[in-house]
Amino acid sequence: MASIEVKPLQDGLSFGARVDGVTWETLKDEAVRKQLQQLFEDRGMIVFENVEPSAKMQVEISNVFGPLKDHPVKMVERLDNDSYPGVITIRAQSDSAICEIEGKTLVTWQPWHFDHTYNNELNRAGVLRAEVIAPEGGLTAFADGIQIYNDMDPTLRDKAENIELLYTLDMHYERQFFGLPKTFKEIQPKNDDILEYAKKLPRSIHPAVWTRETGEKVLHMTPYGCRGIVGNETPEGNALCAEIWENVEATIEPYFHQWKPTDMVIWDNWRMLHEACGCDPKYDRVVHRTTIKGDYGFGRWETEPQAQTETVDAMA
Q1: What residues contact 180, with CB distance under 8 A and at least 6 apart?
Q2: Residue 314 lies in a domain
Q3: Residue 91 is part of which domain span?
Q4: Which residue has the higher pLDDT, 2 or 241?
Q5: DSSP characters over 71-129
Q6: Which of 54, 174, 212, 296 has its CA 20 to 30 Å from the CA of residue 218?
Q7: What DSSP letter does each residue of 236-251 carry, written as one string?
Q8: Is there a domain that residue 316 lies in?
Q9: Are 209 and 219 in contact (CB under 8 A)?
């Protein structure tokens, strides 16, 4: 019988696990696959260590957790859809966003967020593998929405439970009205093609708090692409977003992943927040990502709430 080794992600964290021993052979074992699926449900994210560093293995691991979903934005770079359907490439390019935080220049920095906020359908999970690793920086951070909800100021938690938030694909730093570091400076904006396309899309709506089938409540909001509170797009509403988020950042207990070529990471997009910490623009950094299909069922379009089963087919 095949077996894998499971260890805590990091001492003191209420989420995550490390798994060693995942090979082509162990993945054939249905008991191992079920063990990994349950571990994912229980812990919210898994760091697979010492796995074969290939897109083929990334697809195989991803398929343990559900069918793959193509990225909803068609202009996003694909690795090779014929050989590796569903694998996208994320790289620092000349037109990538660049900013400065605490005096450090960073390319492709992204604040705490969950993926595809701009869509009505919220994918189940993401799987990342680092193809080219920056010699310094380039970390990816993860945090648990269950932990955040449980440890928040109860007054602000109650306020968050009663709001829904509007999101857009326009994630230009300049549009972000809360959640930027105090020392933040924008040096180069995001790709104009995506920003222009974002103007054509309806805004999506997601709750700031939702409840899992297992009963836990999840704080699930992000300043990234947020345009305010449904029914309260006012300075007062924006101030409430900022107040809640300030408490989130004071409460959060993050894990920062330092990448190795033989690592892969899966996280629950319905539960976890993650942050791309960025790296110096002089370094190359390339990651491959797969997306696991699914939907938690609480998102919708602002203009077409009845079309909840439809998803964006961007740039088709």
Answers
A1: 111, 173, 223
A2: no
A3: 5-301
A4: 241
A5: -SBTTSPEEETTTEEEEEEEE--TTS-EEEETTEEEES-EEEE-TTTTSSS--SEEEEE
A6: 174
A7: HHHHHHHHHHHHHHHH
A8: no
A9: yes
Total count of domains within the chain = 1
The answer to whether residue 308 sits within a structural domain is no
- Under DSSP, the state recorded for 60 is H
With a cut of 60, say whether residue 280 has pLDDT above it: yes
pLDDT digits (tens, 9 = 90+) for 43-83: 999 999 999 999 999 999 999 999 998 766 665 666 666 56
Provide the CATH number for the domain around residue 86.
3.60.130.10
What confidence tens digit (pLDDT) does each residue in 90-147 have? 887 767 889 999 999 999 899 999 999 999 999 999 999 999 999 999 999 999 999 9
DSSP states of 147-171: HHHHHS-HHHHHHHHT-EEEE-S--
Q: Any residues with CB less than 8 A from the CB of 158 and at least 6 apart, and which?
A: none
